[in-house]
Amino acid sequence: MTVTAQSAPTDTHTIPGDALLRRLTPEQIEAFGAELDEIRQRVIGRLGEEDATYIRNVVKAQRAFEVAGRALFYVPPAWPLAVAALSVSKILDNMEIGHNVMHGQYDWMGDPGLNSRMYEWDNVCPSDQWKYSHNYIHHTYTNILGKDRDIGYGILRMDEEQEWKPHYLGNPLYATLLMLGFEWGVAMHDLEFERIMAGEKTWAETKHLHAGLIRKIRNQALKDYLLFPALTGPLFPLTFAGNATANLVRNIWAFNIIFCGHFPAGVSTFSQEECEDESRGHWYYRQLLGSANITGSKLFHVMTGNLSHQIEHHLFPDLPARRYPEIAEEVREICERYGIAYNTGPLGKQLGSVARKICRFALPDKAPRFLPGFLGGGRSGEPVAETPLAA
Amino acid sequence: MSIGQSILRSRAVAALTSPHGVDRYLEQVNPMWAAHEVRARIVSVDREVDVPGHPPVATITLQPTSTWRGHRAGQHVQLGVEIDGARRTTRVFTVSSPDSRRGDRFTITLRANPDGVVSRYLVKRATPGTMVHLSEAEGDFVLPDHVPEHVLFISGGSGITPVMSMLRSLQRRTHRGRVTFVHYAQSPDHQIFAAELDEIRRSGHGIDVHLLHPELGDPALSPAWLERLVPGYRDVPTWACGPAPLIEAVQAAYDGSDALRVEYFKAPRPAASSEVGGDVSFSRSGESAPNSGASLLEQAEALGLRPEFGCRMGICFTCTSRKSEGTVRNVLTGEESSLPDEDIRICVSAPVGDCTVEL
Ligand SMILES: Cc1cc2nc3c(=O)[nH]c(=O)nc-3n(C[C@H](O)[C@H](O)[C@H](O)COP(=O)(O)OP(=O)(O)OC[C@H]3O[C@@H](n4cnc5c(N)ncnc54)[C@H](O)[C@@H]3O)c2cc1C
Ligand code: FES
After folding, report:
1. Separation of alpha carbons A168 and A156, rounded Å
2. Is the per-residue pLDDT at B168 higher than 90?
3. Domain carrying residue A349
4. Which domain of life is it from (chain A) (predicted)?
5. Architecture of the domain made up of B150-266
6. What is the pLDDT of residues A350-382, one digit of tens each?
7. A212: in domain
8. What residues of A are in contact with residue B20 (Cβ under 8 Å)?
9. E strands, A239-304, in order
10. Which CATH superfamily, name and number, covers B279-357?
11. Which residues are bridge partners to A345 per DSSP?
12. Which residues line the pocket of ligand 1, CB cutoff 6 A?
């Protein structure tokens, strides 16, 4: 069975994530939600100059890296530096600035340049289309099978509840291609190619997206692949290649960070039935079980747009991301009290776990014996929180 | 426009700086550089009125970016400040200096309202060098290019600003006709632009200045008093700006004459509650109450909601909200609208009967 927004799992068997959600009593879930609400209110009350200064400094740095990168292409020996600066610029723009601003994290500043309704980021995906598929669909229905189209992006098999089909043997290949062309994957996300291929949707139904998509792609291509290379005259091919490389570096980085957010082992998926009419506490609980963090240095967190704190981001998507590290300490402590696993680890470990999952789910569930053990390994939704619940 | 400006505003530069736009880069180098946006640096803050126990009034001189297209006397500007470096808050103020051209310095003159977020900041805390955000000049309460032979200005309190800009422009244009300038203030100590008006009064030049203080015994505005001052005043082109009671008195005195033009700083009070009826509901917060007839913004505030607002006068669109059902009347124009799922400015919309707004 292909998992799409329409064709939900029809049988009502529970999946491991559902079982986890039921480990807390409704009263516990409510108390848990109230504690998180309290954190949220407290942070909102403290928002002010520090947060404003922070994001403005990140913007300043991003603009400086961008200008430096574009300028360094005039100095051929500095080509690697130029690519590095432009890559950093694009990563900062897309992650710490774009992603977070478009979540409305800085709307309270009243600055049109940092407003979720107006910000446009430096990649081929039009911001309004992304805001719908990401802010609304993905953040509301996080890890609900059949609802959250970010589970495998309609291409990959990332969960045992997705029925195996022979074409999933290409899972590792598809993942690699998605990584290399990640901005294109994100841009095409709303077209729902997999549903068009399956005959559930027609090309004509995506028509309202075309004009915006074409305009954005044209603008991006024009500056990166024509105007800036042309401005460097005889160095055109070098600049062209440099811009392409910077886009590629950003694609690889963003893909890896984002896949570590929801796909390492221990992250759960849920059925639609379990999440119908859910309470605020239940929603928080599901967000927590459906996300994973990455540990690292302060600079690392900035370069991931603080998506290294995917758990806190999913609990509080509209709080400024620079607050996640401080919030994380409290969230961890709350999780400990409720006996909820808090999924975190260094980048290498989380990436390895994701890679294993991609390979593992390329194969049918009842793995033939000849497969090496590590590929036949654990079910993704296996309960990892075994500690007894606090009363 | 200079060549530099033309280049910065060109399509080529827009393409190179896409998706952010050239201003997002220029501002990083120098906040006074802009190709599209308008900003200004505060040059000076001068107290006009400082009566102990009363809100002070100050004139703020602004050096705008070269993108400021200038203004016509009587126009206003939306001005946004970042209070404590964080939340940008925008309010509307009238330009008090004479007509300006592209990039010209200009002034605004304002009273620090006791709980006014922006006005108190500007009058009491802002220092030279502070940057503010601006719109272009807006508004059609302006002098025509051909100024009539005799004009009459009537103002009260801080409502003096647009007519002061007009008076100053007339002086600069060396207008030869007659000007009658009537202003109401609480007391001579509360008089804004006192020294300048005094100077104008003494030098004559066809400008009659009448500064009145009804609270100290001067006559209040009435048709008889106006008739004595300016015989046939109903046919004399008149510009009036001030608090609601003054404007109401002026409107009554002019009895629908189209020689009168008025400017409001605050939306006029809508009809009394008995005529409107129904209930007002705010669907997101779940609050509702009997319709009081006031603007939806005020009714929401009365229920403890805090909708965002800027000008409270239908100018800035900050308060725009979705009305899911019901009829509203625009308190400025009297126009009614009953479309479902309509975006309305709640500061100038008063419900007529039942009304639901997504707040
Ligand atoms: C076209 C135009 C031109 C103007 N020109 C001038 C000018 O030249 N000079 C001048 O001094 N003023 C002028 N004004 C008036 C000025 O814009 C307002 O007084 C504005 O509110 C000043 O901002 P503020 O920061 O003082 O006050 P705000 O913070 O807006 O508060 C002002 C008042 O609004 C009310 N208010 C605010 N918040 C709430 C709430 N939550 N609930 C209920 N009531 C609330 C209160 O009565 C408060 O005193 C003009 C207005 C317009 C529309
Ligand atoms: S507050 Fe400005 S339009 Fe309503």
Report:
1. 7
2. yes
3. 2-360
4. Bacteria
5. 3-Layer(aba) Sandwich (3.40)
6. 999 999 999 999 999 875 555 555 554 444 444
7. yes
8. 113, 120, 122
9. 293-295
10. Beta-grasp domain (3.10.20.30)
11. A294
12. B 76, 91-94, 108-111, 113, 115-119, 158, 161, 265, 301, 311, 313
Q: Is the residue at A176 inside a domain?
A: yes
Distance CA B88, CA B84 (A): 9
Tokens of B98: 């004479």
For the stretch A79-83, contacts whose Cβ atoms lie closer than 8 Å and that sit 24 or more positions apart, written own/partner, are A79/A238, A79/A242, A82/A242, A83/A242, A83/A245, A83/A246, A83/A249
Is A144 inside a domain boundary? Answer: yes
Q: At what angle do helices A236-262 and A171-180 cross, to 10 degrees?
A: 130
pLDDT of residue B84: 85
Task: Look at A121 and B19 and tell me if their CB atoms are within 8 Å.
Answer: yes
Closest residue of chain B to A222, computed from CA coordinates: B15
Out of B15, B24, B84, name the one closest to residue A219 (CB): B15
Question: What tens digit of pLDDT does each residue of B227-247 get?
Answer: 999 999 999 999 999 999 999
| Residue pair B68/B135 in contact by the 8 Å Cβ criterion | no
Distance CA(B37)–CA(A258), nearest Å, equals 36
pLDDT at A12: 52
Helices vs. strands in chain A: H and E counts, helices first? 18, 2
CA-wise closest residue to A256 among A91, A134, A81: A91
| Rounded-to-10 torsion of CA B125, B129, B134, B140 | 80
Residue-averaged pLDDT of chain B: 94
Residue A387 lies in a domain: no
Nearest CA in chain A to B25: A63
Answer whether A219 sits within 8 Å of B16, measured CB to CB.
no
Q: CA triplet A234, A238, A244: central angle to 5 degrees?
A: 135
Q: Residue A361 in contact with residue A158, Cβ under 8 Å?
A: yes
In the numeric block, which tokens belong to residue A358?
């991609």
CA atoms within 13 A on the CB side of A99: 25
Between CA A143 and CA A149 the distance in angstroms is 9
Q: Which residues of B touch A (CB under 8 A)?
A: 12, 15-16, 18-20, 24-25, 28, 80, 82, 84-90
- Please count the structural domains in chain A: 1
Class of domain B37-134: mainly beta
Give the three-class secondary structure for A157.
coil
The shortest C-alpha distance from B7 to chain A (Å) reads 16
Residue B65 tokens, joined: 């970016």
- Hey, where are the domains in chain B? 37-134, 150-266, 279-357
